[in-house]
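Entry details:
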Amino acid sequence: MLFLCFLNQSLAQERKLLPLWDGDPPVCPNSLDIEKTYDERIGYRVSKVSTPALDVYLPPDSLANGTSVIICPGGGYAILAWNWEGTEMAKWYNSFGVTAFVLQYRLPHWEKRNECSDKIALADAQRAIRTVRANAAKWKLDPQRIGMMGFSAGGHLASTAGTHFDAGNPDSEDLIEHQSSRPDFMILMYPVVSMQDGIAHGGSKRNLIGDSPSEQAIQLYSNEEQVSAETPPTLLIHADDDKAVIPENSVHFYLALRKHRVPAAMHIFSGGGHGFSFGKDKGITASWPQLCKGWMDEMGWLVND
């Protein structure tokens, strides 16, 4: 049975996090102590996560529509931009009735790499989806309207969850593991998608699969190569002048979605650079939240149950 705990209250906002597993995660447990530092621009930076967890944001009952989104903050698979690409987004979703969860996922630290390093973040994302689906009745959610949103490397994690999923394990003693890990839709913000040379974000690639990855690992985590007809409908947001994660990441993923006839939309703004969050002071790029909300509405995810 899941339980609630406080996360480092001396450094963080005093919110309760919902651990994804009792005790150590079964997939590649580590003994890292969580670290948090504060940045005046982006808020808290979380690193060295040992306890994957969800920060739960419930909208007012009068607005709740049954749709939920799990948010994966970015940070190159080295940190989590916790407020900038996490908690502030959750509050925005709550404002129009969407339940939001900010995912505190484990990070594959280069200095402690092992054979499991590339698997831990995905294991946490899959468990998060299963957890939300298993608790849908408790949170008054539609178990078929669970989305994943990811920023930068968090976008890579979200797109990995959307291309590497399973139907669950009905034989598991853990009832949460009976649930499917497939998200029902994805919203990918200036996402890392590919691990291919010339497209990949170097830091994210190195942190996830190492300095000298095998061709198999490159192919496995180049998510544009993993798209199928079962990949969830996707919205992609990017800036043309993004020099850190070039827009080809979104373009290649979009083309793969089109090839497999998966409903998709993409907006590439002329400016904004990388890591623009809500796009404040970025001109027309700041219109992406309205476009996102409009896309969700058009797809039927904002209709009250």
Observations:
- The chain has eight helices and twelve strands.
- The chain has a mean pLDDT of 91.
- The longest strand covers residues 99-104.
- The two ends are 28 Å apart (CA to CA).
